[in-house]
From TrEMBL:
Residue ranges constituting the Chitin-binding type-2 domain according to the UniProt record: 98-159
Species, as recorded: Limulus polyphemus (Atlantic horseshoe crab)
Domain of life: Eukaryota
Protein name as annotated: Uncharacterized protein LOC111086329 isoform X1
PROSITE patterns: CHIT_BIND_II (PS50940)
Residues in coiled coil: none
Pfam families recorded: CBM_14 (PF01607)
Length: 174
C-alpha cells in the first residue's frame, strides 16, 4: 500500500445518528484521540491532522451493542498542506471543501461549535479548537473585526453549542 502525502484527513458526514450518551460513552466513532457521537447533520465536515511519516490514522467504531439509531456513513478525502487531493483522479469542486473562507486570511467561527474555529490562510481553511477553558469570540468594534479564543465567561456563543460532540479522551478520564 502506498502512502498518501497529506497533512489532513477530511471526514464528511453523509448520515450520522448513533445512540446518544453523556460524554460519548455508549456509541462513538473514535478518530485518533477524538470521539464523534450523537447526531450530526449531513455535510458536517471535520479535519484531523495526519502525522507525517505515518501510514495510518486509527479510526474505530465503539458500541455498547444496543441498536437504537441508524448508525453512520461517512466519506473521506485527504488534504495536502497546500491544497486538496483525493484518492480519485477527479479533483472535487470547491463546494466540497470544508469551509468557504469569507476572506483570504483570518479566523472565523465554526458554524455549530463555540470552541472550534476556522483558520483561513490563502483561502484554505483549517479547523482548530480553542484551548481548555476558552471559547472562540468574534466581534466587530467600530468597523474593525476581532477574533480569538477568550475565557468562557467573556464569550457569547450566539446560538453555537458550548459543548462539542467530540470528546477529548484525556477529559473523559477525569
Amino acid at each position: 500500500m502506498s502512502s498518501i502525502n497529506a497533512c489532513w484527513l477530511n471526514l464528511t458526514v453523509v448520515d450520522f445518528s448513533v445512540q446518544p450518551s453523556n460524554g460519548c460513552t455508549k456509541d462513538y466513532l473514535q478518530v485518533g484521540e477524538d470521539r464523534l457521537c450523537d447526531d450530526l447533520p449531513k455535510g458536517y465536515t471535520v479535519l484531523w491532522p495526519v502525522e507525517q511519516g505515518k501510514d495510518a490514522l486509527a479510526i474505530q467504531f465503539i458500541t455498547d451493542s444496543c441498536i437504537t439509531r441508524r448508525g453512520f456513513l461517512i466519506k473521506h478525502n485527504f488534504v495536502e498542506c497546500q491544497g486538496l487531493i483525493t484518492t480519485t483522479t477527479e479533483r472535487p469542486s470547491t463546494s466540497s471543501l470544508v469551509f468557504n473562507c469569507p476572506f483570504e486570511n483570518g479566523l472565523f467561527p465554526h458554524e455549530r461549535l463555540c470552541k472550534k474555529y476556522y483558520d483561513c490562510k490563502n483561502n484554505i481553511a483549517v479547523l482548530k479548537e480553542c484551548p481548555s477553558g476558552k471559547l472562540f469570540k468574534e466581534e466587530v468594534v467600530e468597523n474593525e473585526r476581532f477574533a480569538d479564543c477568550e475565557d468562557e465567561d467573556k464569550v457569547n456563543c450566539k446560538g453555537r453549542e458550548k459543548v462539542s460532540p467530540f470528546l477529548d479522551i484525556k477529559d473523559a478520564k477525569k
